[in-house]
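Bug report

Summary: structure tokens for IclR family transcriptional regulator C-terminal domain-containing protein differ between web form and batch submission.
Environment: batch mode, default settings.
Steps: 1) Submit the sequence below via batch. 2) Compare with the web form result.

Sequence submitted:
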Amino acid sequence: MRQYQVKTISSLERGLQVLKALEEMRAASLHDLHQVTGIPKATLIRILHTCNQEGLVWQRLADGAFVASLRPQRAPHNDVEWLGELASSVLEELCERVMWPSVLTVPRLDYMETIDTNSPKAYFDEVVPVAPIGFRSHMLLGASGRAYIAFCAEREREAVLRRLREHDAPGNAYAHDPGWLRRLLATTRSRGYSVRAPEYDFDGRNSIAVPIRLHGEVLGCVNVTWRKTVMSAQEVARRHLDDLRAAVHRIEERASAAVPQRHGSGGDEI
């Protein structure tokens, strides 16, 4: 670049410094950024707010961490930060309507991983907290895993089941039972949502979940979770399933707008 005899813009420099720090750390709290950059927190808040308004930074719901936006780079649709960014404001709106917390999960080799939750904003987030980011839920017992298994492509489902059959862990025995699996798939598909297995009780809650689908693939799942002593799954579905489906549809629309149709992909015809 040609050397110009001008001063640099200090405010722009600070903003770029913050963006660079976020890219290096992937996610950071306000205190983290203050420690790394030395910029006063009041100034950081203004920088982050400006960057958020310009689509350069977003804030994760689960822990309030700031994350550099991936939208300008059109990130691939299997990037969890990209999906978390697309879903963040939708999860916040869903929480305002339902008031019970929801969790956003993505499939891994043989489990579902929590990547965000609106739990901190939930009115009814009572004594038992929702599982944190990074929590692994069971594919065949958890609501999110069941939603994924029922609606993912057959080749993916068989690969997951094969991995589950290789390990003797609670719940994995169902992967050896073709009749049980057929009933699970049929019931979940006919409902259009999944329900946590009754025996999968580690937190006093129950959950229903709906898959996020794009071009025949399941990107992840969104659930609604509540204290099981308050309502049945049928009552929660009656009250809140439409809101949950509408939220998932908005995420799918955002993902579809960001990722072009890929020929040759496709899951089961359901």
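Above is the batch result. After comparison, the two runs are identical; trailing whitespace caused the diff. Residues 262-270 have pLDDT under 50 and may be disordered. The longest helix spans residues 233-258.
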